[in-house]
Design a protein that fits this description.
The complex is a heterotrimer of chains A (319), B (701) and C (179). Chain A is an all-alpha fold and 319 residues long. Chain A has a single domain (5-311), classed as Formate dehydrogenase/DMSO reductase fold (Up-down Bundle). Chain A is built from twelve helices and no strands. In chain A, helix 2 packs across helix 6 (147-171). Chain A starts with a helix and ends in an 8-residue tail after the last helix. In chain B, helix 13 (376-383) packs across helix 15 (404-413). Chain B has 21 helices and 27 strands. Chain B folds into three domains: 75-144 and 351-520, Rossmann fold, CATH 3.40.50.740; 146-337 and 537-549, Dimethylsulfoxide Reductase, domain 2 (3-Layer(aba) Sandwich); 574-700, Beta Barrel (Barwin-like endoglucanases), CATH 2.40.40. Chain B is globular and about 70 Å long. In chain B, 29% of the residues lie in helices and 18% in strands. Chain C is an alpha+beta fold. Chain C has one domain: Alpha-Beta Plaits, CATH 3.30.70. Chain C is built from five helices and ten strands. In chain C, strand 4 (75-77) and strand 5 (83-85) form a beta hairpin. Chain C is globular, with a radius of gyration of 16 Å. The two termini of chain C are 29 Å apart. The chains are: A mainly alpha (319), B alpha/beta (701), C alpha+beta (179). Chains A and C meet through helix 3 and helix 4 of A and strand 3, helix 2 and helix 3 of C.
């Protein structure tokens, strides 16, 4: 095993950062300058930069020789044939945009839409890059599919939203109530991810024997318990259920017009303060369940990377 | 662009021609030394055994120099079994006092020395014990090749020969594997021979690592090689496929043996060996057609050096088949080559000690080749209270020679036990005094004379200065010990003085040897000269006159007959057999980190079990199994394989280290000898190391 | 031009590990690190069995994936066709290790840098490289030389034994195997 859990954490955190940024930017687009979802945006931007920083630290820490000789990291921009070099560029752009947008948010300034647009593009590249990075490696047929970047992209957005939502639920639960459409998007990502995962395993297991062996390790081998309980049940099934119930419950009172109305509702409740009453409010039980689902998404997001990293069996060619 | 490592390692070294010490071959090597530290070894192309290459053991064992597990100062055992440092002077004085006490009370026959011979040891160990008035000089041979050398001596008078593989057409190996117990030049010769179309047949319960060169594998039931050989001889004689001229002119006893051989047709051998009669008949006919370029290889330890209660006769049968085929000294056959020797030396400077009483064990085991003796007698007489003091040099007898428990019992009863070694072996752990030698790369040794198609002399010269200042070279230790024991007059010369005198006696310049490492001696071997048979009859003996003249034999007869092995595996038991691996040299290399890393990485400590038998027992590859018999029980991982006879369990013999100071090998694998009951091959004196049965059960997956 | 290559006769390899240990000492590697690894297979069933050992190391590919993925340019191919690592540039990201389909690269944990077989090339004295694995191979299973010189031993042996890279279509490897 050449790469292990540190790289899995990095892939996960970079994806999470991208997803959280995208969440914040989407909320900002939805907000249209009305400042109804300021806290959620701020949470998303903080999560994005923090996750990115931790992920990059792990990446540097795992690069033992560079960690010992930091000046060598300047060589990183020399070989543009390497996906990793492109990754450095992408991460650089994404990191800068994240930082600037976070500062603007903290200074309570409006983040220009073009900047968030650029940020979303950089975030998408970052999330996809984490998949492309290992997806171009022919040694591990499990990784070497075009589906992997797409899967990682979807999972990244899912994880980023989950992280943003969990924290927002603590800090600004009312703002969150008005983001029904994002919740639906968040929910919709889960079956997409499941579908992509099934497709990935199916495609892989019908190619090289090494990929078959990898899939076997996941589905029925030494990693099966983590795969089924951790990734499939905790990471996908539980969030699907809790998300479904949450949307069902949330959709009743506030769901009459869950896009613009929802925003209005949120604004209204925000303005109305405590007196705003029950309209659009989700019961605490459902909120706890949604949070549990989001925790599941995060666990699943990490396990997805971890399992794909460790399950990969190298090509066999000698015999 | 230049990377650091490259620039660092290209230049700035000096070279020293010396010899390897990782196994008994002592191949010529060139040591590369940088800034006073050994960098690497290369093979000396002039040496007949290395021919310019070095095996894994050679490269690995050189690291003993810098091993953290080396002995660095003399040690004395405390009452509780722990060890404390002692000065050389005090150690010598105390050992000297105890030696004198034993000599005074029990006489010189109560003292013995045991070693794995190396250039200095062969001279100094023997001289030291002789100087004390004792002839009890023993080597490891009773657990190596004593049956083989004794069997050969009883047929053609010499103790070994060499199959002329390069020029042969068909070579049959009986249990020996050049790919496992390796001499580089032999493996190279075999590789070339196989490629040029020489047919190679392996008779071995295990498809060993020489298998890559083999055209045919005959997975004989262990311990029954003799039956297979007798069946081959039967066919050769019955079908008249033997060299009648050679038999008539050079041999004795043929007619008598031919009558005996009639009892051993391939059909008889089939049930014993597990090899189809037709296969044996076909092999015999092929040998008959190929002779004198069809040859049975000479073996070493392999399947009949010391393993079974019939090994002596297995060796005799091999020699006899080579005689039937008219192979002796014929191109492509079996060669008895000359080994040069040093000439007479100045008796004033190098006085010969007075001859002492006969070596213990010679009377009880009269068919043995006596030079190396049977070390098992030291155990036997130790337990009986007759042997009172023993010295070990470069020998891990307690772990490797016979059942360790018996060795420990014997040594515990003795009044003096001394171990000279570079590391704290299992044997050192049983000794009163442990004297640290410097490693072979830190000392000069005596020249070694080697036979073969071209005789030569090889040198060993110091490559680096001592790493640990308190260690001393064996010649110095022996001279100082002798002084302390009151026989210093036999050691009043330096190793270099003796080496120079020996070389002068054969007209070789010391400086030339130092420069080249190897100097050829005498004329190359000439084919077709019949050997000088050093037998009582002066001929090759199908019926041994020495055996006929020896009284009181318990097992063997003048005729080469079938002899049952001591034990036979049943339906629930396996015969425990063992062998070498190319990365280890007995137990001495299991302390070497780079070699033990290979063991760990490739799980080479595993016990081999036949796939069908494993399936019956529910054992899968990699499972942990318990190997048990009445003497010992231990667990080890299984290697489930198609490459093994179903009646056998095969383990590498060198593992299962129990000396905690040797951290690399400690507790890795299982110790073969613990399972082997202490017993001695009748008349010959070998340890019968494969006469043990075990049961197996799965412990965990 | 000089293009160094190697031929390995697996039909001569007894799996003795001499090349591994020789390489370790030549390159002063820790005992646990090796540039050479082995794969073993037995085929057939008792008593008709065939066993084969295959040594593997850097294949010095002309289209080396390790070189193309290396983000710092530390991995490169020198003008003699030898794939090398410029350790001064290596950050130890191990991307090259994952990209090498032959699993021929290792990380030296003393420095964190990635290392591999260098065909024992000396850049500083201009001499012909003399790989320790070839030099020490007990059975002569390895031949080293210049692929661009049709008279070299390795070129001729590749032709006469019809030696091929260990895997078809994987990379343009320059270690040729006789199986």
């Amino acid at each position: 095993m050449i790469w292990g859990s540190i790289i899995a954490w990095y892939l996960f955190l970079a994806g999470l950062a991208a997803g959280a940024f995208a969440t914040a930017a989407l909320v900002s687009f939805k907000d249209r300058g009305r400042k109804a979802f300021v806290k959620v945006q701020l949470v998303g931007r903080i999560v994005a930069l923090l996750a990115l920083a931790i992920g990059l630290f792990l990446l540097i820490f795992d690069a033992e020789a560079g960690f010992k000789n930091p000046l060598r990291f300047f060589y990183l921009l020399t070989n543009f044939a390497s996906v990793m070099t492109w990754g450095v560029v992408i991460l650089g752009v994404f990191g800068c945009v994240s930082l600037v947008t976070l500062l603007l948010s903290l200074l309570k300034k409006h983040v220009p839409y073009w900047l968030d647009g650029l940020g979303i593009a950089a975030a998408a590249c970052t999330a996809a890059y984490t998949g492309v990075l290992i997806g171009v490696i022919k040694t591990y047929p499990l990784w070497n599919t075009a589906l992997l970047p797409v899967l990682f992209l979807v999972s990244a957005l899912s994880a980023g939203m989950a992280a943003t939502f969990i924290l927002s639920a603590l800090i600004a639960p009312r703002e969150l109530e008005g983001l029904g459409i994002l919740k639906k998007l968040h929910f919709a990502l889960l079956p997409t991810e499941l579908l992509l995962l099934v497709a990935l395993l199916y495609v892989a297991s019908s190619t090289a024997p090494a990929a078959q062996a990898s899939v076997e390790r996941l589905v029925s081998g030494d990693l099966a318990l983590t795969f089924w309980l951790g990734l499939v049940v905790a990471g996908l099934i539980v969030p699907l259920f809790s998300g479904g119930i949450g949307i069902g419950a949330g959709g009743n009172p506030g769901g009459r017009g869950s896009d613009t109305d929802g925003a209005d509702g949120a604004r209204a409740s925000g303005r109305g303060g405590a007196g705003g009453g029950g309209r659009g409010r989700t019961s605490s039980g459902i909120r706890t369940m949604e949070a549990a689902g989001d925790v599941g998404v995060l666990v699943g997001g990490f396990l997805l990377r971890y399992l794909i990293i460790v399950a990969a069996v190298p090509l066999t060619f000698v015999f | 662009m230049t990377s650091r490592a490259h620039a660092k390692e290209g230049t700035g070294y000096v070279t020293v021609a010396t010899s390897c010490n990782a196994c008994t071959n002592k191949c010529g090597v060139i040591a590369y030394v940088k800034d006073g530290r050994l960098w690497k070894l290369k093979g000396n192309a002039a040496h007949p055994y290395s021919k310019g290459t070095v095996c894994a053991r050679g490269h690995g064992y050189a690291q003993i120099l810098y091993s953290a597990d080396r002995l660095t100062e003399p040690l004395k055992r405390n009452r509780d079994g722990s060890y404390s440092a002692i000065s050389w002077e005090n150690a010598y004085r105390e050992i000297g006092e105890r030696v004198r006490a034993i000599l005074a009370k029990d006489g010189p026959e109560a003292l013995a020395i045991v070693e794995d011979p190396r250039p200095n040891g062969k001279y100094y160990s023997k001289r030291f014990i002789n100087a004390l008035g004792s002839n009890n000089y023993y080597t490891h041979n009773a657990t190596c090749n004593l049956s083989l050398s004794s069997g050969y001596q009883a047929t053609f008078g010499g103790t070994n020969f060499s199959a002329d593989i390069a020029s042969s057409k068909l070579v049959v190996f009986i249990g020996r594997s050049y790919g496992d117990g390796m001499r580089p030049s032999s493996a190279a010769t075999l590789a070339r021979a196989a490629e040029s179309g020489v047919k190679i047949v392996l008779v071995d319960p295990r498809l060993n690592n020489t298998g890559i060169f083999a055209s045919q594998w005959l997975p004989v039931n262990p311990g029954t090689d003799l039956a297979l050989l007798l069946a081959i001889a039967n066919v050769l004689v019955a079908e008249g496929l033997y060299d009648k001229t050679f038999v008539a002119e050079q041999t004795t006893g043929f007619d008598e043996w031919a009558v005996e051989l009639a009892k051993y047709p391939p059909e008889w051998a089939e049930g014993i060996t597990g090899i189809p009669a037709d296969t044996m008949t076909a092999l015999a006919r092929e040998l008959g057609a190929a002779g004198p370029k069809g040859v049975i290889e000479q073996g070493w330890r392999g399947a009949f050096g010391c393993q079974y209660r019939n090994s002596f006769n297995t060796a005799r049968a091999i020699a006899a088949i080579n005689a039937l085929l008219g192979n002796w000294n014929r191109k492509g056959g079996a060669l008895i080559t000359h080994t040069p020797k040093a000439g007479a030396l100045d008796a004033g400077k190098f006085p010969t000690p007075v001859q002492g009483p006969q070596k213990a064990g010679v009377t009880e085991y009269p068919l043995q080749t006596q030079d190396n003796g049977t070390n098992l007698i030291v155990v036997k007489q130790g337990i009986e209270g007759k042997m009172k003091g023993v010295f070990f040099y470069n020998s891990n007898a307690v772990k490797a020679y016979a059942n360790p428990r018996d060795w420990k019992d014997a040594l515990a009863k003795m009044e003096l036990t001394v171990c000279i070694d570079v590391q704290m072996s299992e044997t050192a752990h049983q000794c009163d005094y442990v004297l640290p030698e410097c490693s072979y790369l830190e000392r000069d040794e005596l020249p070694e004379f080697l036979g073969g198609k071209q005789g030569c002399v090889a040198g060993r010269f110091k490559a680096v200065e001592k790493v640990h200042p308190e260690t001393r070279a064996s010649d110095v230790i022996y001279a100082e010990l002798a002084e302390a024991c009151g026989v210093g007059e036999y050691f009043r010369f330096s190793c270099e003085e003796l080496a120079r005198a020996q070389l002068e006696s054969v007209s070789v310049s010391y400086d030339e040897l130092r420069e080249k490492g190897v100097v050829n001696l005498g004329e190359p071997f000439a084919y077709d000269e019949p050997p000088t048979w050093k037998t009582p009859s002066g001929k090759f003996e199908f019926v041994s006159q020495k055996i006929a003249a020896t009284e009181g034999l318990k097992l063997y007869t003048p005729l080469i007959t079938w002899v049952e092995p001591k034990v036979s595996p049943g339906a629930d038991t396996f015969r425990l057999i063992g062998g070498k691996q190319s990365i280890h040299s007995h137990t001495m290399t299991t302390s070497i980190e780079s070699l033990m890393n290979i063991t760990r990485e490739y799980a080479l400590e595993r016990a081999w079990i036949n796939a069908a038998r494993a399936a019956e027992l529910g054992i899968a590859d990699g499972d942990t199994i318990e190997v048990r018999n009445e003497l010992f029980t231990a667990t080890v991982r299984a290697r489930v394989t198609e490459r093994l006879n179903p009646t056998a369990l095969w383990i590498p013999t060198h593992y299962g280290g129990s000396s905690p100071e040797l951290r690399q090998g400690f507790g890795v694998g299982i110790p073969h000898m613990e399972y082997v009951p202490f017993d001695i091959e009748p008349d010959v004196g070998s340890a019968m190391t494969h006469e043990a049965l075990v049961t197996i059960r799965k412990v965990s997956a | 031009m000089t293009r160094y290559a190697m031929l390995i006769h697996t039909t001569r390899c007894v799996g003795c590990f001499a090349c591994r240990v020789a390489c370790q000492t030549q390159n002063s590697l820790p005992a646990s690190d090796s540039f050479i690894r082995y794969e073993e297979q037995e085929s057939g069933s008792y008593p008709v069995v065939y066993a084969e050992q295959v040594p593997l190391q850097c294949q010095h590919c002309e289209d080396a994936p390790c070189v193309s993925v290396c983000p710092t340019g530390a991995s490169y191919i020198n003008n003699e066709g030898i794939v090398l690592v410029n350790q001064e540039r290596c950050i130890g990201c191990k991307y090259c290790m994952t990209a090498c389909p032959y699993n021929a690269r290792i990380q030296d944990h003393r420095t964190g840098e990635v290392e591999k077989c260098r065909f024992c090339v000396w850049h500083d004295d201009g001499s012909v490289p003399e790989p320790a694995c070839v030099d020490t191979c007990v059975t002569g299973a390895r031949i080293f030389g210049d692929l661009d010189d049709p008279t070299s031993e390795v070129s001729q042996a590749i032709v006469s034994h019809n030696a091929k890279p260990i895997a078809a279509g994987l990379t343009r490897a320059k270690i040729y195997y006789v199986r």
